[in-house]
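Quick note —
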Amino acid sequence: MAAGLASAQRVCWHKLLTAAKAAGTFQSAWLATGTPTTGAASPAFTAGSGYTCSNSTTGALPYTNGSVQNYLAANDAFSSQLGTVIFADRLWSCSGMGFAASTYTVSTPGSLPARITDNGLGCELYVENFVAAGAASGTLTANYLDADNNAKTAVISAGNIISAPVAGEMQMVPLANNRGIKQLTSVVTSATWTSGTFGMTIVKRVAAVPIGIIGTGTIQDWSITALPMLPNDVCLMLFFLAQTTTAAQLIGAFEIIDK
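Predicted structure written out below.
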């Protein structure tokens, strides 16, 4: 560990999030200003390609591939608001799904990036709002393949769908089992929403840092991070589980070792 940390990559980041809609909601930093720069727009669900992300995707935290194997060895995060900073590998994302009562079929959805070698075990699916949207009703159903290539459906019920989401808001889609997701095939909305569009994003969580006191932070060494492996080409992003509706300013750094 000492030798690894002596030559570790240090990746610094600083993001200014938009205000969360409510306490207990996720707020994405992908399109937030700061360092790294605002993330690249996701292609429309009808694009047929370009959905997967890598460390060369605009908006990914800067990252150099390991010559042996990279591990997250230390992590610190500071926030102006209460919440939890979550780090994830952004794997796949699309945009442009409207709020009409309709089925939105992803054109040539494709597989997850090659760095995912377990067919999507542990991967999570989120509704991601790249722009603010209007009032919502009805259910949202995601049709997908799990890690065992079984066709599954995941539903956000009418009572749990977030109405009038703000820009940057993310809502987790509760998957049907613990077998993750390897491919999103379509999304069905049962009722018309008033305005706006939304996207869908697949991530694999890497680490989480809780912020328990406003204006302070948390430092995690290798014994706390548990040394998660970071595959080559990982598209590191962060999002925030907000505990207030005030816009959060986040700052921190990674220490990444190659051993």
